[in-house]
Design goal:
This protein is mainly α. Helices cover about 75% and strands about 0% of the residues. It contains 23 helices and no strands. Helix 12 runs antiparallel to helix 13. The radius of gyration is 22 Å and the shape is globular.
Length: about 425
């Protein structure tokens, strides 16, 4: 994989960034609504549903409702809202198969469904018809990042940023820079994305959480904590902000406070990674019964996913690999995922699952792909270090563990202890 260095051009354009019209995912059609911009997502949904009930033939209102539903997906991770949005868009396109707003949102639906190639194909088709609209370049870049096509992502994001340097394009450029191994440039761009603002407070809170993640992964826990706090204030109850606060409190050894934060996150959105974090924190806090409840909850979520015929889930695969159990299920999940999501994060997940299954040779191959861009993810280096140690490559393992701890000596309570212990021996 080759990454073209875009940072100089990106920063030059970003210096002229103006107020954002777009979130990272949802197209800006709310601006043409009669509903006040200050309305919450729930208020917007209620008003639009009422308007449509009175005049169901209004395509504009249907598109706005679909956009509001998709914003609600961002806020709640409840994909029932995506189903509602998709039904509306299908109806709009039946009556008007060239409706531009509906087509733009279809790109988002394909992306959220993890139909990345479909999203990229649709984005390229729309770009061919409307090359001056930045929106589809963002979708093309997002899909390309997920498929591991980093050069194409760089070009798409560059076009988007040149056309409209706002929160939507700046935060995408930031993510690209981080993946490409340039965290300081990523931090600069994410700060500019936050300063650009957005119509939805959740969009800005999302960027603040991402900034906190950038700081955390590169060891600045104080700045990470401030970013997560600001996100929680910007969008009260935001699950990602609470999870971030749980992460920094765990890193500081404040386990009771970390548990409280993760429980708030979990009460809003029961993601497997939140449950796994709680399980580990309860173990560290000598609360085995509570830890067992969290492990049971992880398995319950997986049973529900099986009933829903879920075939891919790299986050759950990593959870199972961390725990050293259900490894066949973990391997099935991540191998299915890599067929559609051939990016460095999925390769890292595959490497970690293969390591736990003691397939060290193939684990090393996937870990090498995960590290190819120099992405400053401490877990990547920790996983690769464990694999190298298992293969008897002691010096290589030491270098990898050192790099993980150099990035953040408290990147994960248990893993950081193992890495430090390996270096001490």
């Amino acid at each position: 994989m080759r990454i073209d260095r875009l940072v100089c051009a990106i920063l030059a354009v970003a210096a002229f960034a103006r107020a954002a019209d777009l979130g990272r995912v949802i197209p800006d059609i709310a601006a043409r609504s009669a509903i006040p911009e200050s309305a919450s997502t729930d208020q917007r949904i209620a008003s639009l549903e009422k308007l449509i009930a009175q005049n169901g033939r209004s395509i504009a209102w249907q598109n706005q409702l679909a956009a509001a539903y998709m914003q609600k997906v961002r806020e709640t991770v409840d994909f029932g809202y995506l189903d509602r949005a998709e039904r509306i868009l299908n109806n709009v396109l039946v009556s008007d198969d060239g409706n531009y707003e509906a087509l733009r949102m279809r790109e988002v639906v394909e992306l959220e469904r993890h139909h990345f190639q479909n999203a990229a194909d649709l984005a390229e088709a729309i770009i061919g018809l409307h090359p001056a609209d930045p929106w589809s370049y963002g979708i093309l870049g997002d899909a390309s990042m997920e498929m591991g096509h980093y050069d194409r992502a760089a070009a798409a994001y560059g076009h988007m940023l040149a056309l409209r340097p706002d929160q939507s394009s700046l935060n995408r450029a930031s993510w690209y820079e981080f993946v490409a191994g340039r965290p300081q440039e990523a931090i600069t761009l994410m700060k500019q994305a936050i300063e650009s603002g957005a119509r939805s407070p959740e969009n800005t809170a999302w960027c603040l959480v991402d900034l906190g993640n950038l700081y955390f992964k590169t060891g600045d826990i104080d700045q990470a904590s401030r970013s997560y706090e600001q996100a929680a204030q910007t969008f009260p109850g935001y699950h990602a902000a609470q999870a971030g606060l749980g992460r920094v409190r765990a890193a500081r050894g404040r386990y009771a406070e970390a548990i409280a934060a993760y429980r708030k996150a979990q009460s809003s959105v029961p993601l497997p990674e939140y449950t796994a974090a709680l399980e580990q924190l309860y173990i560290l806090s000598n609360q085995p019964e509570e830890a067992h409840k969290q492990r049971d909850l992880i398995d319950f979520v997986d049973r529900m996913a099986r009933l829903a015929s879920e075939k891919t889930n790299r986050n759950l695969a990593i959870v199972y690999a961390d725990e050293g159990r259900n490894l066949d299920r973990a391997l099935d999940l991540v191998q299915a995922e890599i067929k559609v999501r051939d990016d460095i994060y999925t390769h890292d997940a595959l490497a970690w699952v293969l390591f736990q299954k003691k397939d060290y040779v193939h684990a090393e191959e996937s870990a090498r792909v995960a590290l190819e861009l120099g992405t400053p993810e401490p877990a990547f280096y920790y996983h690769a270090g464990r694999i190298a140690a298992a293969l008897g490559k002691r010096e290589e393992a030491r270098k990898l563990f050192s790099r993980a701890l150099e990035l953040n000596p408290a990147f994960d309570v248990r893993a950081a202890q193992i890495a430090a212990g390996s270096l001490a021996n």
